[in-house]
Design brief:
nine-stranded mixed sheet, binds glyoxylic acid, binds manganese (II) ion, 13 helices, Aminopeptidase, 21% strand, five-stranded antiparallel sheet
Length: 424
């Protein structure tokens, strides 16, 4: 068991709940929607405005601000031995097309709240502490997701991301350059630089903690994920005149494929396979023209990567059976992530103290259904995550919410963890 550290306890006790809640509300005004959600897709003008705001907040807290080649923003609070690799916390600033106030934003705001609390309490740490706002975690505007964190860990990946385009054919590389140009005074920092540890605080985005009635989760790992684009090729023709048996209808092919994929998912329900066909593009998308081309995305996830191997073989088999009329591209793949035991023990102690002080049940271990930037950081340094419950398990939805007291407990647990790591 991790020895309890006095300054870690002080940092935990210095978290200011009112300031935390108002910081979450303030960041949510960037892209805030009338339905209570947030639309702040990566590298849009709204995302850039929110980055300027975060930079101001960090500077006001006395942080040094830095940016890397993937426009990941770092806010650094100096340590007594400033040359030592820092402890990193934070999350992503971008949202889904229709997202909530918390997915990503919570972890970034939490990091700044910890720095404010350390300042208030006059606590200095051995190592520097950095708060990060990663670029394009969501992957909804430019695929794949977790671009910023994966490029940080392996900068050779960045070149492969630059030509990704959004639905208006804007290149990721151009959007990235515009983001870097918009903060000319911010010094550049190295990607892949040494970090002593990384901790990400995030909402669960699923129903497990809420159903268990437990306010904090110690995340043991993240399930595997693969993303594909499936394109069905047919021939455009007149809807009214073309006999049914003479059509090459790309939609009919796509629907039949989709049904088989859902069938595969149903037979793997015991493995908790999760399948989403989330984005569809129909060409020419006209009421009275037989679709000449249909493209759809496949997001498939499972804790057991061998189940995804079987899914992929099944999908490739279906494409092969269709001859040249179905093409397939895998554009994201990640095996399961397992966080290291010493990090889990530290988080268990930190979260356990926060829960005990509030008279609430002890934290529970949980695996993450969503992917996160911490997934790639785990390849680079000792990494772990803390979860707070999501009301009704809802996320990637404007209605995403968490009890404010749970949000507070999560930041308390993070403060303890980060401070303890920064003194090791
Ligand atoms: C990230 O948002 C995910 O899809 O898990
Ligand atoms: Mn997220
Ligand atoms: Mn998300
Ligand atoms: Mn995510």
């Amino acid at each position: 068991n991790q020895p309890l550290s006095r300054s870690a306890e002080q940092a935990q006790d210095a978290i200011d709940n009112e300031r935390l809640q108002s910081s979450i509300a303030a960041l949510a005004t960037f892209g805030g929607r009338p339905d209570g959600g947030v639309s702040r897709e990566t590298l849009t003008s709204i995302d850039l405005a929110s980055r300027h705001y975060l930079i101001e907040q960090a500077r006001a807290l006395g942080c040094e601000v830095m940016v890397d080649d993937c426009a990941n923003l770092f806010f650094r609070r100096a340590g007594r031995r400033n040359e030592l690799p820092p402890v990193l916390t934070g999350s992503h600033g971008d949202t889904q097309p229709v997202g909530g106030k918390l997915d990503g934003a919570y972890g970034v705001v939490a990091g700044l709240e910890i720095i404010a609390a350390l300042n208030d309490a006059g606590i200095d740490t051995l190592r520097p502490i950095e708060v990060v706002a990663w670029t394009n975690e969501e992957g909804s505007r430019f695929g794949p997701g977790t671009m910023g964190s994966s490029a940080f860990v392996d900068p050779s990946r960045l070149a492969g991301y630059l030509d990704a385009v959004d639905q208006s054919r804007v290149r990721f590389g151009d959007a990235l350059q515009a983001a870097l140009d918009s903060i000319p005074g911010v010094p550049r920092c190295e990607m892949q630089r040494p970090l002593s540890a990384c901790v990400e605080l995030h909402i669960e985005q699923g129903p497990v903690l809420e159903r268990a009635g437990i306010p904090l989760g110690v995340v043991t790992g993240i399930q595997a994920v693969r993303w594909f684009t499936v394109t069905c090729h047919g021939a455009m023709a007149h809807a009214g005149t073309t006999p049914m048996d003479e059509r090459r209808d790309a939609m009919a092919a796509a629907v039949s494929l989709a049904q088989k994929l859902y069938g595969f998912a149903a037979t793997h329900a015991a493995d908790q396979l999760r399948l989403t066909l989330g984005r569809w593009q129909v060409s020419p998308n006209s009421v009275n023209t037989i679709p000449g081309q249909v493209e759809f995305t496949v997001d498939v996830r499972c804790l057991d990567d061998s189940v995804l191997d079987r899914f992929e073989a099944f999908l490739r088999g279906l494409a092969a059976d269709a001859g040249g009329s179905v093409s397939l591209e895998r554009f994201f793949q990640r095996a399961p992530t397992h966080f290291p035991r010493p990090m889990l023990d530290l988080i268990q102690a930190a979260a356990g103290r926060a829960c005990a002080q509030a008279g609430l049940p002890a934290p529970m271990p949980i695996t993450s259904g969503a992917f996160h930037d911490a997934m790639y950081l785990a390849d680079h340094c000792p990494t772990a995550m803390i979860f707070v419950p999501s009301k009704n398990g809802i996320s990637h939805n404007a209605a995403e919410a968490t009890d404010p007291h749970d949000l507070f407990l999560g930041v308390q647990a993070l403060a303890y963890t980060v401070t303890a790591l920064a003194n090791q």
